[in-house]
Design goal:
Blueprint lengths: L4 E5 L7 H8 L3 E4 L13 E6 L2 E6 L23 H13 L5 H13 L5 H16 L4 E4 L9 H11 L4 E4 L9 H6 L3 E4 L20 H8 L9
Parallel strand pairs: 1-2, 1-6, 2-5, 6-7
Antiparallel strand pairs: 3-4
Length: 228
């Protein structure tokens, strides 16, 4: 029986490199689009580096009842002109980078997508990231699977559904995963320890763990994500 590696994560806007690396290291990546939205997480926001330091780019979510909603129910607040503001911030931060003329039109296309469903917006963007990074991992939306369990049980059920023998978890998985239940099913759990090497950035001293767009604009390429 061949080794099947699975990873999973909630939607993320302009994700950091560790998110994309977790996809690249797996045979199957499950896009958790029907779990509960977590306020003040990196789900609908991330940072870029500007002349004034790290700056948040946040997708506004319609606020009423959103904390208890499934991701599938989230709608973007289209009364705010956030897309053009994000693009202006990115242009101001990286227009002096040599890769700007190549990278900006791609990122502009992703951000300008008029989709107002948050998970669909992030899904379409994710497909773009995977294409640009040359990743061949099989991508699946959890909403298509009909699995109703939560937290550790959800992850275990995902592994069983795809006959995974290994699960790649983010570092925060130590807070909720019941490792023994995975071991009983012959599934090993590996915790991601992603380290971002320094790379030349604009605007002074290096700042790690920004959105992947920072690396892309700064270096002209995407990180060499480790495949499995």
């Amino acid at each position: 029986m061949s080794d099947i590696v699975l990873s999973a994560h909630q939607p993320a806007y302009l994700p950091w490199p560790g998110y994309i690396e977790k996809i690249a290291r797996a045979d199957v990546f499950v896009f958790l689009d029907d779990v509960q939205f977590e306020k003040n997480s990196f789900t609908n926001r991330n940072r870029i580096k500007t002349a004034n330091g790290p700056t948040w780019l946040t997708v506004p979510i319609l606020a009423k009842g959103h904390i208890n909603k499934s991701m599938m129910d989230l709608r973007i607040d289209e009364t705010r002109d956030w897309r053009s503001k994000h693009l202006k911030s990115i242009e101001g931060a990286y227009r002096r980078c040599s890769a700007f003329s190549h990278v900006f039109p791609i990122v502009e296309g992703w951000i300008s997508n008029p989709e107002d469903g948050f998970v669909d917006y992030c899904w379409n963007q994710l497909l773009g990231w995977v294409k640009e990074a040359g990743i061949t991992t099989h991508l699946v939306r959890s909403s298509t699977l009909g699995i109703a369990s939560r937290k550790s049980d959800l992850v275990l059920d995902l592994c069983l559904t795809f006959h995974a023998t290994r699960y790649i978890s983010g570092a925060l998985g130590t807070n909720y995963l019941d490792i023994s239940s995975f071991e009983e099913k012959g599934i090993s759990v590996v915790f991601q320890d992603f380290q971002m090497d320094h790379y030349p950035q604009p605007w002074g001293e290096f700042i790690p763990y920004l959105s992947t767009v920072d690396y892309w604009f700064s270096t002209g390429q995407l990180p060499n994500f480790r495949s499995r």
